[in-house]
Amino acid sequence: MTTPETTRSRPVLTLAGARLVLEAALAHADQIGVPVNVSVCDDAGHQIIAARMDGAALMSASIATDKAYTVAAFLGLPTHQWFDLIKDEPALREGIVHRDRLVVFGGGVAVRAQGQLVGAIGVSGGSAEQDQEIAEAGAAAIT
To answer: Which helix (H) or strand (E) holds 68?
Structure first.
């Protein structure tokens, strides 16, 4: 039997929503002249859509995917906040970075709708600051 204690309703990022995020990120990257890879995933870290701009490095595609996954896997924590969280804890700093798919530099941010985490966007190909800026522009397409 389904009861309020055993299930909950929540917004879900659709393909149409993921496309809006992707297109906003690509437009911003194009505007600032930085060719990047962009990956958008749902709140469970499953990729919905991705794109590689002309001139973007091939390896950056998997990094973008892992940035989005990292954000989703840690309930919306942006990748640029990771280093400050672990820098003063040597055991954690040295250990956690060996986890598959964890990225601890800028370019991954949460996608939220109605105040709830619905997914994440990862961007790779520019500097960490550029990647973050482009990811934030993409995430802002969903409110």
So the answer is: helix 59-73
